[in-house]
Amino acid sequence: MTISEPAALTSVSDAMRRGLDLALQGWGRVAPNPLVGAVVLQGDRRLGEGYHAEYGGPHAEVVALQAAGERARGSTLVVTLEPCAHHGKTPPCTDAILAAGVKRVVAAIRDPDPQAGGGLDVLRETGVEVTLGPMAPEAAALNAPFLFSREQADRPFVALKLATSVDGGIADATGSSRWVSGEAARDYVHWLRAGFDAIAVGGTTALKDDPQLTARGTPTPRRPPVRVVFDRRAMLNPGVRLVATAREVPTWVVASTEAPAASVAALEQNGVRVFRPPSLGDGLRLLREAGIQSLLCEGGGALGVKLLVEELVDRLYWIQAPVWLGADAVPAFPGVPAASLAQAPRWVPVERRALGLDTLLVLDRRLCLPES
After folding, report:
1. Which among 5, 234, 253, 302 is most buried, taking Cβ atoms within 10 Å?
2. Nearest 5 degrees, angle CA 178-CA 179-CA 180?
3. Is 61 an active-site residue?
């Protein structure tokens, strides 16, 4: 996205907030690259803006500088992530910044990628004024999966999505869960899926709900997310949609060493890739080795709790519907060990907003903030 005419007066903090909003428009289209937005200021006047819209396409800084044109000389460039200093799919953004005559660069956070990082140092050494840190927590939350993947290589970034009643039920006393949340929340989940490498459910959920686990909204993901089923016994049958369509959309099963060989062979004959790790953590490690950097788990309750108890969840997307299901409802967190108030882990709130009549709460287990 670009603008060609001067915009209203804007402070650096306003420009950074605008950059974060712009960056999110690349959701589902730029991975494994990070989400980045940029704004060009001359004084307090916004001259150009842009975001990284497509993997392999121009970076946010280049788009914003092209929008500003010659007016960028002597300007301030506000960007949500440190400009790259290497030649990848595109030339270094630092070259474009220097060629445009930018006087000052304000970046929210460093780029921890060992190849792309270091751009601020390059700019500083050539006389560009550099400021680091405005809205760093927000920028880190925006790119949490990307930052996690550069910090920890032994498993994917794991997000758990739950839709519950106000009193924490994921289904009523009969086991019915369609639909706890409303249409706006379901649309949001399709948008959410587009930004993850893989979407996961447990084996019981896969059999009972027969989900498609595809992103059927806007944006269309650049690569369809891999569908992952955590099914220790590999008991999925050819009649469920995940198996029936496995040759059309990648479908993987994380079973166990105890899974019957005949069941594994039947899945593989239908185009399903099967892993047989000794533990859940080992299963996540195998997924990472297979190229999955981010995983969205959508249930069921037993799988979500196991991930939480083993401290394998990095982000929680909690959709709360304004309905009460009562004491006999299926609970969202069965069997989570008790903790004292003083010792209970406190997560980092990332976002709160309405989704129609429902409420979205996003929590991170910790803030993944690159060193400055």
Report:
1. 253
2. 120
3. yes
